Amino acid sequence: MILSIVNQKGGTGKTTTTINLASALSQLGKKVLVVDMDSQGNLGYCVGLDEGNTISDVLEGKIEIIDTIQSREGIDIVPSDMRLVDIELSLIEEKERHAFLKNALNEISSKYDFTLIDCPPSLSILAVNALYASDRVIIPMMLEVLSLQGLDQITQTIQKINESYNKVIEIEGILPVMVDKRRKLTEEVKDYIGENYDITIFNSMIRNNVKASEAPSFGQSVISYAPNSNSAKDYMAFANELLSRN
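Given the sequence above, the corresponding structure tokens read:
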């Protein structure tokens, strides 16, 4: 299964969710590939990747995607770099510009139980590539009023891609992140989504926890860095919930 971790609003924990979900799934015995489609390349930093080939080289047609893979914590990772910004501009003139990533993944995705794509925080050709390559999407989301606008944008984007490319991308669900259960607003926004959107909200919630912020400094997921922390426990619970639903 290919899953995009997507939210067009920045600062919603997409990269944190991607790497920690991947680590949790790996701990549960699944073979996982992670693809970074964000030009900032934060995912590689989070797990201490070495410099080398990236998804930029693949989209430029220089190498095969298998030649970019680095492994950390039992996860195979395709890193990115700042060249994605220029590559995105070059893709504008390509006829099949939406399918570059999907075509690249066709070689290797069948070798994995899960392929997770860390999407850029914008509606761009790179994001369209990620979504077009995906079977389903997970939306990490802070349960705040302003987040609802971003949710509308995501659902509209997915609908447009499905209509334009005869695709069926499903929303696997919303993952509440940076949750403070003491706040009344958290439950109010959750209830509002439940009443107004036909989208599943995962039972698992990722609580605020300093260990998740510290882990990238050590080049590790929070699963490895602080396995007994609230964040690690929450991501393990989320991975189990995802598996139970699939």
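The beta strands are 2-5, 32-36, 70-72, 75-78, 114-118, 136-141, 170-176. Try to locate this feature in the token string yourself.
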